[in-house]
C-alpha cells in the first residue's frame, strides 16, 4: 500500500523546476501583465513575478512606461502572479490561466506601501550594491548594472558588473548579483564561480547561498541544495515561501523526512502567504513515514487554505483516494 500512496502523492508534488519539453503549440507567445495601482500612479520599481503551479518562481520582469510587464513563450498552465518593489506591497495577484495563444492580457491590482526595501530585496536573487566606500568609477558600473537588471538585459548587466568588480574586487554583493545574472543567462558554471566568490568574501551573505541552492536544486543535486539552503535559512530566519519550499522539497528528496516536516511547519508558523505548497511536501513526507492520517490532515489543510489553488483539484482527488482506502482497510479489519 505504501508504494501506491507514494505514487499518488508524488503526482501532486510533480517535478518542481524540471526541464519539460514544450511543443510550439503549448505556449503563449506573449503574456502581458497590466498593473493597476488603486491609490496612485504606477510604481516603476515594481517587479512582476510568475510562480509556477508548484509555487516556485518561473519568471520575473520589470514594468514599462505603461506599467505593464511582458513575458514571452510562457508554457500554458496555471500561474500565480505576485509583485515585488521598493514601494509596492508584495501583492498576490491570484491565479492566472495561461492559454496557448499568440497574445494574452491579464490585469493585477496593487497598492502602495511604505515598506522598507530591505524587506523585499531579501526575496530576490539580487541585492543592493550601494556602499559609500565603493570608488566612484566602480559605483557607476554597478548602477549601470542595476538598470540593466531592471530591464532584464543580462548581457549588459554582466558586463557592467565585471567592469565594476575589476575596479573594486572585494564586493560580495556585486559577485552575488553577477552570479544571479549568469544564472539567468543559463551559464551555471560561471554563476557558481561568482556566487562562491561572494561567499568567500562574506560567508554570511544569505542571498548567495540561496542562489547557489537554486542552481543545485535545478541540477537535482538535492543534498547540495539542502546544505546551501539550510545555511541560507539559518542566516535569514525570515525566509520567504520559495526558499522554504525549495529547502523542504530538497530535504524530502534527500530522504530527510523529519527535516522536511520541520521546514514545512516553519513556513506555516511564519504565516507566509504562499506556504500552501509546504502542506503537500509535509503530506508526502508523512505518507513515506506511513502516517496516513496525518498525511490526510496536511492535504485537507492545503485544500482549506488554497481552495482555488493550482493543485486543489488533484489534492482533492488524492485525498479522496486515501480516504477510500482507509475506509476499506477499516472495513476489512472489522470482519
Structure description:
- The protein is α+β, with helices and mostly antiparallel strands and 335 residues long.
- The chain folds into two domains: 215 residues, Alpha Horseshoe (Serine Threonine Protein Phosphatase 5, Tetratricopeptide repeat); 88 residues, Immunoglobulins (Immunoglobulin-like, Sandwich).
- It has 13 helices and seven strands.
- The strands form two sheets. The chain has a four-stranded antiparallel β-sheet, with no helix packed on it. A three-stranded mixed β-sheet has the order 4-1-7, with no helix packed on it.
- Helix 1 runs antiparallel to helix 13, helix 3 runs antiparallel to helix 4 and helix 5 runs parallel beside helix 7.
- It is globular.
Q: What percentage of residues falls in helices of 4 or more residues?
A: 40-55%
Strand tally? 7
Quick one: CATH class of the largest domain? Mainly Alpha
What is the quaternary state of this protein? single chain
Number of helices: 13
Structural class assignment = alpha+beta
CATH fold call of the largest domain: Serine Threonine Protein Phosphatase 5, Tetratricopeptide repeat
Outline, from the CA principal axes? globular
Strand content: 15-25%
Arrangement of strands in the largest sheet: 3-2-5-6
Q: From the 3D coordinates, which CATH architecture of the largest domain would you assign?
A: Alpha Horseshoe
Question: Could you state the CATH homologous superfamily of the largest domain?
Answer: Tetratricopeptide repeat domain
Mean pLDDT: 77
The largest β sheet comes out as: 4 strands, antiparallel
Amino acid at each position: 500500500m505504501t508504494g501506491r500512496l507514494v505514487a499518488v502523492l508524488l503526482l501532486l508534488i510533480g517535478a518542481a523546476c524540471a526541464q519539460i519539453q514544450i511543443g510550439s503549440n503549448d505556449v503563449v507567445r506573449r503574456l502581458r501583465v497590466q498593473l493597476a495601482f488603486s491609490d496612485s500612479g504606477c510604481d516603476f520599481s515594481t517587479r512582476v513575478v510568475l510562480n509556477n503551479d508548484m509555487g516556485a518562481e518561473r519568471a520575473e520582469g520589470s514594468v514599462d512606461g505603461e506599467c505593464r510587464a511582458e513575458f514571452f513563450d510562457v508554457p500554458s498552465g496555471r500561474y500565480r502572479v505576485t509583485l515585488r518593489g521598493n514601494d509596492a506591497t508584495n501583492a498576490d495577484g491570484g491565479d492566472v490561466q495561461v492559454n496557448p495563444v499568440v497574445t494574452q492580457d491579464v490585469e493585477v491590482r496593487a497598492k502602495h506601501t511604505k515598506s522598507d526595501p530591505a524587506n523585499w530585496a531579501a526575496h530576490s536573487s539580487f541585492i543592493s550594491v550601494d556602499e559609500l566606500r565603493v570608488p566612484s568609477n566602480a559605483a557607476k558600473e554597478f548602477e549601470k548594472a542595476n538598470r540593466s537588471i531592471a530591464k532584464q538585459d543580462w548581457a549588459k548587466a554582466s558586463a557592467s558588473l565585471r567592469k565594476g568588480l575589476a575596479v573594486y574586487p572585494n564586493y560580495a554583493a556585486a559577485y552575488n548579483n553577477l552570479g544571479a545574472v549568469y544564472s539567468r543567462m543559463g551559464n551555471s558554471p560561471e554563476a557558481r564561480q561568482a556566487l562562491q566568490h561572494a561567499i568567500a568574501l562574506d560567508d554570511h551573505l544569505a542571498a548567495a547561498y540561496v542562489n547557489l541552492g537554486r542552481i543545485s536544486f535545478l541540477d537535482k543535486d538535492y543534498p547540495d541544495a539542502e546544505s546551501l539552503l539550510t545555511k541560507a535559512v539559518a542566516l535569514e530566519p525570515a525566509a520567504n515561501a520559495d526558499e522554504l519550499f525549495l529547502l523542504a522539497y530538497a530535504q524530502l528528496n534527500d530522504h530527510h523526512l523529519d527535516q522536511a516536516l520541520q521546514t514545512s511547519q516553519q513556513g506555516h508558523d511564519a504565516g507566509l502567504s504562499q506556504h500552501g505548497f509546504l502542506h503537500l511536501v509535509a503530506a508526502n513526507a508523512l505518507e513515506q513515514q506511513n502516517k496516513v492520517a496525518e498525511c490526510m490532515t496536511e492535504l485537507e489543510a492545503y485544500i482549506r487554505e488554497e481552495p482555488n489553488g493550482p493543485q486543489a483539484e488533484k489534492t482533492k482527488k488524492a485525498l479522496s483516494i486515501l480516504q477510500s482506502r482507509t475506509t476499506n482497510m477499516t472495513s476489512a479489519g472489522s470482519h
